[in-house]
Amino acid sequence: MRVLVTFGRSKTYIGIVDKLHHEPPKGYEVKPISQLVDAAPIVTEQQLRLWHWIADYYLSPIGEVYKAALPGGLKAEDGYRPKMEMYIRLTETYRNEPALHVALNVLGRAPKQLEAFTEYLALSGWDQLEADKQIEPAEITREELMNASQASSTTLQQLEKRGMLETYEVEVGRLNHGGAYHPELIKKLNEAQQTAYNQILMSMMKKPVTLLHGVTSSGKTEIYIHLIQRALDRKEQVLYLLPEIALTVQMMQRLQCVFGDRLGIYHSKYSDAERVEIWQKQLSMNPYDVILGARSAVFLPFQRLGLVIVDEEHETSYKQQDPAPRYHARSVAIMLAQMFRANTVLGTATPSLESYHNAKTGKYGLVELNTRYQDIELPEIQVVDIADLQHRKMMAGPFSPLLLAKVREALERGEQAILFQNRRGFAPLIECRQCGWVPHCQHCDVSLTLHRQLNQLTCHYCGFTYRVPTECPCCGSTDLRTKGYGTEKIEEQVREVFPEARVARMDLDTTRTRNAYERIITDFGAGRTNILIGTQMISKGLDFDKVSVVGILNADSMLNYPDFRAYEQAFMMMAQVSGRAGRKGKRGLVILQTKSVNVPVIQQVVRNDYLALYKDLIAERQAFHYPPYYHLIYVYVKHRSNEVVHTAGIELGSRLRQWFSNRVLGPDKPSVAKVKSHNIRKIVLKLENGIDMKKVREYLLMAQSQMLTDKRYSSLQVYYDVDPL
Predict the structure, then answer these.
(1) Residue 86 DSSP SS3
(2) Can you give the pTM of this predicted structure?
């Protein structure tokens, strides 16, 4: 249960009672409990056991785990209030066609207001209004309209003053009312799917974890639905994890058709009130039987968990980076299932090397599904050498002639295209053509990204923004040019090349709200958008019927990355985004643009040869002491003073060498050595499989406490990344 405890004169904190005992704590003053908040426990015994495992394994304070696990409303003293969201609509006066024409004429002299107003009409569906038909306009949030039209709040206020638009509040955070349960809608599996399903059931009898390795569009989701139904027939609960919030939109629609209000959705884009209500429902006598969610769903209370599905198990999004605990949701999900003696199914078209190795060595079960649903062929992948085209001056910006021709043909046939560029913003940097000056963040060791729509330079590490300079501060030149391409610049150029096409962009900047995700995906799925441009978000399991062409604009940005996992992750990303092409009815085409045509991983992507990639990389990993043969732990020291962090890194490194000898590498500067005005040093531990990890953790925490007793290091931060990605 939760309790209130007063610290100092006025500060009150909420804590959770972890256990009852009679041993007086030593080494600190005990504070009295001032109030019991709950009438019944809000955390289960299994949850506490899991939290302690996470704290122990990932070398994170238990308080950090508690902070990450509980929804905000359960950590606040005054509980939670349902979140109200501001929506916007046409006033009664303008809800007819003649009045709308008058409004558009009136706004002719106010271009910003006109743009916002017409964007509202398009989003809501009022622009489809016909005199003889009564349509139901879509509900639009104020934030969504500002996001889509790039309008300021002042612009919308002016439209309200004119009496054209009005705002109203809606309570968000209600639980999912998904309708009736329809098991009869579960589709019959085809022969290949049925064989895989039977093999999974056989595997579950022998191994707690099974890896389902199925090519893109092989129908893995249908197999999951049958496995979920089997668990429900056995009166068990199911946790279905997805790596990206964007994916929950499509998956929710598919699962809701079948499981109705037995399905609950849980992820960070949902309001705090909703997450609290789901948490409380999971503790009730009538919990959701199926939870669909992103990585934070592993923290929910379960009562009778029988099956955990980790879809797209290879995805790096499952790993929490900052703040602590830096857990991997796949590992936590496997541990959670183990505590309930439940089965785990890991599904993907491109397994992580660690999972595939575990399957090949017999630790996990392995089931392979090598044919696409309805025997559709995997897409044809054509590699384009952009180094040669640039040399011959044949590139149109970031687009090869072949890509432009194929996209144009697709549009003429009424089909859709996806363009993949794994970098958001307008341009990665701006540079002075006279002296080479590049603007950098004053708080971080990185160059600034230009966001032209917002007309600002942004640091993607600390979020700090700067105005765009008109001249170079070093030499005074006004010849400042952008270098490279972000999704925003790609979108601008696509609109110029294909003015008749309806274009959408899906990246972190355009999907800051839950509604924005749903709007982009729904519009593209319904064919209201012809070309979708995006970052890695678009590569993850989205299913669209009419996509016939996928363009990977620059494979080199993924290949030329200073990390031992670069080729593995590049293969996964390219194979996954390629899988979006030709998913229904006919074979798709992928145009893969690169300057590195002879790199083996490019040919492995073309042949969809995961096994060749695995054989190449696994030998390297063994030779150079990397996972899955070795455990990695990164130890970071952070301080405002570069001198302090330098000496602390050397001292901590030498302490660790006393125990771990040549298993310790560093300290060294990481690729970004300064973030939010704090300097960073990194020490790498490479620990062979079979080493006593409990002892390793003891030594690390001992070295840390010894360091922090030195007055020089009183404000030094030491933290860990266990199994880093």
Answers:
(1) strand
(2) 0.83
